[in-house]
């Protein structure tokens, strides 16, 4: 059994492989993962994975376990090999999309652009602009769940113009647009477009871009990015757990001595 862990700033993702086949998948809040690791009743990482509640497919084996971690808090996870999110994303995306060229991994604290054509990458981690934290800030202002932003985007009849992606200034601009007559939905649409513009600036010319990370489950982000960057956007079957899958695939390589 091989387990891949992606412990991010907001969620922890768990993927389990048995003989190369995906047998379990789970997403939990990162705070719960950290609490379990610190809990005296949870003495090791394997126990933590089982406590969280991944359910095995009948017929899988429970022999020796290989665990590989990645993500923002990967170095806090004991008893595991650790790999960078760049490596994990590359392995996970190529599992689903072998001919992928450029990956955009939108996380809670940073956004990474990985160019598989020349093995280069860029990271935006200087502020919340173009990260999930920016959307969390907007959702908090409107007192709505961040998961509802995509649905509200579809109700907008037009888009407010939000120029700032710095959190403090963006909130001020959102207020101005609301006062100016734009609806909440139209301001949210503007937020998504500002978000997409910030990310698009990081991406080299390419026909197809693969988007991953929990943030891209927001359909408003995907639509805005497609219209602004002009490339074809592809999402893997489970964009939020791709890095955990990549970690598990790296574990397979370790097992095979590669």
Task: Characterize the structure shown.
The protein has 258 residues and is an alpha/beta fold. It has two domains: 2-85 and 241-255, ATPase, nucleotide binding domain (Nucleotidyltransferase, domain 5, 2-Layer Sandwich), CATH 3.30.420.40; 98-234, ATPase, nucleotide binding domain (Nucleotidyltransferase, domain 5), CATH 3.30.420. It contains nine helices and ten strands. The strands form two sheets. It has a five-stranded mixed sheet with strand order 3-2-1-4-5. A five-stranded mixed sheet has the order 8-7-6-9-10, with helices on both faces. Helix 3 (85-96) crosses helix 9 (242-255) and helix 4 runs antiparallel to helix 7. The longest helix is centred in the C-terminal third of the chain and has 17 residues, at 184-200. The protein is globular and about 60 Å long.
Write the layout of secondary structure elements.
Blueprint: E1 2-7, E2 11-18, E3 21-29, H1 30-38, H2 45-52, E4 66-70, E5 81-82, H3 85-96, E6 102-106, E7 111-115, E8 120-124, H4 132-142, H5 149-153, H6 167-179, H7 184-200, E9 208-212, H8 219-229, E10 232-234, H9 242-255
Parallel strand pairs: 1-4, 4-5, 6-9, 9-10
Antiparallel strand pairs: 1-2, 2-3, 6-7, 7-8
Low-pLDDT runs of 5+ residues are 55-63
Taken as a percent bin, the fraction of beta residues is 15-25%
Order of helices and strands: EEEHHEEHEEEHHHHEHEH
Amount of helix? 25-40%
CATH domain class name of the largest domain: Alpha Beta
Rg calculated over all Cα atoms = 19 Å
Mean model confidence by pLDDT: 85
Q: Quickly give the structural class.
A: alpha/beta
**Major β-sheet strand ordering:** 3-2-1-4-5
Number of domains: 2
Shape: globular
CATH fold title of the largest domain = Nucleotidyltransferase, domain 5
Corresponding CATH architecture of the largest domain: 2-Layer Sandwich
CATH superfamily of the largest domain: ATPase, nucleotide binding domain
Biggest sheet statistics: 5 strands, mixed
How many helices in DSSP terms? 9
């Amino acid at each position: 059994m091989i387990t891949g862990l992606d412990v991010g700033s907001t969620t922890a993702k768990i993927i389990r492989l048995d003989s190369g086949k995906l047998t379990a998948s789970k997403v939990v809040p990162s705070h719960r993962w950290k609490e379990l690791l610190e809990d005296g009743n949870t003495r090791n990482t394997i126990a933590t994975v089982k406590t969280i509640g991944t359910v095995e497919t009948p017929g899988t084996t429970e022999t020796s376990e290989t665990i590989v971690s990645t993500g923002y808090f990967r170095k806090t996870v004991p008893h595991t090999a650790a790999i960078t999110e760049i490596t994990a994303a590359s392995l996970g995306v190529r599992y689903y999309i072998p001919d992928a060229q450029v990956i955009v991994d939108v996380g809670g604290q940073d956004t990474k652009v990985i160019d598989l054509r020349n093995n280069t990458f860029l990271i935006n981690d200087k502020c919340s602009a173009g990260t999930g934290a920016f959307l969390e800030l907007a959702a908090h202002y409107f007192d709505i769940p961040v998961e509802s932003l995509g649905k509200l985007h579809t109700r907008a009849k037009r888009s407010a113009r939000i120029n700032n992606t710095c959190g403090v200034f963006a909130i001020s601009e959102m207020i101005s647009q609301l006062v100016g007559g734009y609806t909440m939905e139209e301001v949210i649409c503007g937020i998504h477009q500002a978000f997409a513009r910030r990310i698009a600036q990081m991406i080299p010319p390419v026909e197809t871009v693969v988007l991953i990370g929990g943030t891209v489950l927001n359909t408003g982000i995907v639509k805005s990015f497609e219209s602004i960057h002009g490339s074809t956007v592809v999402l893997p079957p489970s964009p939020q757990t791709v890095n955990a899958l990549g970690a598990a695939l790296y574990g397979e390589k370790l097992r095979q001595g590669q």
